[in-house]
Amino acid sequence: MKTETGITNTVKSYFSKHTIQDIIETIGKIKTYALLDWLAHKKIKPENILIIGAYLTGAMIANKFKEYNVTVVDKHPHLKCLIDSNVTFKKPKAIKGSWDLTIDTTGIGGINPKELKIQTKAFIVESPISDASDPIIKNHDESKKRIQAVKAPLNGILYTSGLNTKTSGTMTLTIEVLKRSLNKILEMDGVLYASSQLRFYERILFKEKNCKKFIESLKENAIITSSLRKIDCDMPIKENLRRIKSQIKEI
User: Fold this and answer.
1) Helices (H), strands (E): how many in the chain?
2) In a domain, 251, yes or no
3) 203/82 same-domain check
4) What does the pLDDT look like over 121-146, one tens digit per residue?
5) H helix runs in 76-233, sequence order
């Protein structure tokens, strides 16, 4: 664990080993393993996979399946920077054809059900609404409409929850992990303050369209704590990540 002296030698700054990227990748693995477990349970071995949406969840699932024939489609061409070079990246006009497995990760305001002109043996949609506690957000969930539009023989919704967040987006969960972890650290004796080097990451990626800056900014230490005694900044991060659960429910 990285440690620095503060203004005086009495106070020290403690840095988490976890970076923002580590938290994002752990959440991505939780979602991806839920998908892998479901495929194993259904004894499905897809040879060609279509993933709709390249931002975070879509990219991480695609990179996990890179040894297969995987195509990712997204209307933002610069998001190709998040995708492994072995994965095919195309614009949304490619949302057609026949597939063994299709995964929609576009969430709120994502792909219009009318644009889903595909045939697929299995269709998984990532639900964006977490525990559905926010009625306005819930009303913007089109997961079931997308499933009805495709009419695949096998359908499922990927649900992620555990932190009582309003959405189940990977960035939403990342921010919640940080917020809860900071609050936990602030309750500890001897802690002066704790902070996270947070930025509005989505603006960097979608407004500035600076993928390199986005990726580099995620490599910063997730939490820094100023304290009179040694503090393990990673412990609350790990605890909160363990609370996150994903599962696929067939419909």
Assistant:
1) 8, 11
2) no
3) no
4) 999 999 999 877 889 999 999 999 99
5) 135-139, 143-150, 170-186, 201-206, 211-217
